[in-house]
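Hi everyone,

Forwarding the result from last night's run.
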Amino acid sequence: MFRKKFLSVLLCVTLFTVSVPQAFASGVEDQNLKKERIVTEEIKNDTLEILENSRESNNVQPQNEVRPANIFRIIMQAARLLYGTSKTYAKVTEAYVEKAIENEFEAELPFLVTRYSTIKDIWLIGTSDYIELKFGTQDGGMEHIMSKHHPKYWTGLGYKAVQQNSFFYETTSMRDIVSIIATVANYSESNKKAIRANTSGPVAVDGLYDGKKYRLVVNSDYEVVTLYPYGWNIAESE
C-alpha cells in the first residue's frame, strides 16, 4: 500500500516537472546489467490515453527545456511502475528457435529443411494468389518473426536494430501467428490489393486480430517478411 501511494505521488509529480523524474530514472538504472535482455510491458489503456494526451499538450516548449518526447518517456516509465506489469526474458540461441519451428511444423516441412522451405501457403481470398510463409532466417519468415517479436524466442538485437520493439504475448503460439497472418492479409480489399500490386519491395498492411492491431510485411515475391503487434506491448532491450 505504501509503495503504491509513493508511486502515485511520483507519477503526479512527473507530469509537471522534469528534474525529479530524471533523477528517479537514473537512480533505478542497473549499472551492473551485463546480459542482454528484453522487458515486455503492458500498461492500462486509460493510463496510456491520459499520458498520450499529456504528451500532445506539451508539443511546444522553450528550447531550454527537455523535449516533450523525453518527458513522455519519463512519464511512461513511472506509469509502468505504478500501473503496469513487466517481465524479463533472457535471449535464446538461433539454433533453439530453429529447432522449435521444426518441431512445431514437422508435418508441413520437407525431410530436408532449409530457409526456403514453405510452412504455409496463405490464400488471398477471392483471388488466385497466395502469400508464402517460409521457414526463413533472422531477416525474414517465421524464424525472424519468432526471434525478433516473441519474448520466449528472442535472440537479441541484430544489425541496425533499434532498442525498442513490439512483442507478441508469451502465450501466442506459432499456429496463432499463422492465423494472424491470414487474417491481416485478408483483412480488407485494400490489403489484398496492396500485396498483389506490389512489385518494388516490401509492403506493409495492417489489420485487427482478436481486437489487437498487427502489421504484416510482404515482399514483391509474395513472401512474408515479418509480422508484429503494431503499437502495443512495446518492449525494451537492456
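Confidence is low (pLDDT under 50) at residues 1-7, 13-36, 41-51, 53-66.

Cheers,
N.
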